[in-house]
Amino acid sequence: MWPDGVVVREAEPGERHSPWRVGGSCAWFAVLHRRATLADGWSALRQAGGAPMPLGAGTRTLVRGGGLDRPLARLGVDFLHIERGEGLWFVGAAVPVPVLLHAWALAGRTGLEAWTSLAGSVGAAVALDSAGVLPAIGAVEALQRGQLREGTLEDAKRALIITGVWLRSAPAEVLPKKAKARSTLPQGWWQRDGRIDPVAELVRAGVAGTRLRDVRIPSEDIEQFVNTGRATLDDVELLARSVCDKVKRTSGADLVSRVQEVGKKRRS
């Protein structure tokens, strides 16, 4: 039924594909490993259960308790490579951002300073955080109308799924001012909405070590959540709201949760 290189599991628990180990089930979970069969695999998933929902590293996308009744699709092996060039680098969409940053730094390249605040995969960063990553983007590859096509970021946002990106070095003077001043700590589940430095305010507000039910923010890594046992998506939502409210009350800084929920809410 499925093209070569497409691995599909039915009624797959979403918690298996979340670093936080929470989330409801999805009707189909698919990993598309081959560039050559990506279009066929995407079409087959669409015919089986509707338009697939792209998933990166799962660092901010969670399936609600009521489940997702359409396919959840992740890119696999063929999209995990980096092709280094003297000018542009081509980076597969499934490459984790920390891996890219490490390789970029070892090569002595600049221009990805804003990427240090991003979590997850390169494809998700380009799709969801374009304002911060735009200066380094030369072009984007995406699946459009059944073919892999090269285009602009705006073209890619109208595509089915981003499969890769061409990145260029940039001198520091052309980088956004926010990128120069931004803390090197990545923003995980939250983002700043205002002018106050979010890391400093989070620490000042005493967020580090906060625990609610079975989910906790570790003192040593305040941009993360830790599932301490049997945490649920409701626990994650409640802690995120509580932290944002606490920071607002104590410092005046506005934080916005970056958790993206898909699927149906659980019936009470």
Your description of this structure?
Helices cover 26% and strands 25% of the residues. With 268 residues, the chain is of the alpha+beta class. It folds into 3 domains: 72 residues, Uridine Diphospho-n-acetylenolpyruvylglucosamine Reductase, domain 2, CATH 3.30.43.10; 99 residues, Uridine Diphospho-n-acetylenolpyruvylglucosamine Reductase, domain 3 (2-Layer Sandwich); 80 residues, Uridine Diphospho-n-acetylenolpyruvylglucosamine Reductase, domain 1. Strands 6-7-10-8-9 form a 5-stranded antiparallel beta sheet. A hairpin with a 2-residue loop joins strand 8 and strand 9. The longest helix has 19 residues. The two termini are 37 Å apart. About 6% of the residues have low confidence.
Oligomer type: single chain
**Annotation, overall tally of beta strands:** 16
Class inferred from helices and paired strands: alpha+beta
CATH class call of the largest domain: Alpha Beta
Proportion of helical residues: 25-40%
Widest sheet: strand order?
A: 6-7-10-8-9
How would a textbook summarize the main sheet?
A: 5 strands, antiparallel
From the N-terminal CA to the C-terminal CA, the straight-line distance is 37 Å
Give the SSE order as H and E letters: EEHEEEEEHHHEEHEHEHEEEHEE
Any low-confidence stretches, pLDDT <50, length ≥5? 172-186
- Count of spatially separate domains: 3
CATH-derived topology of the largest domain: Uridine Diphospho-n-acetylenolpyruvylglucosamine Reductase, domain 3
Second rung of CATH, namely the architecture of the largest domain: 2-Layer Sandwich
Rg is: 19 Å
Mean pLDDT: 83
The amount of beta strand, in percent, is 15-25%
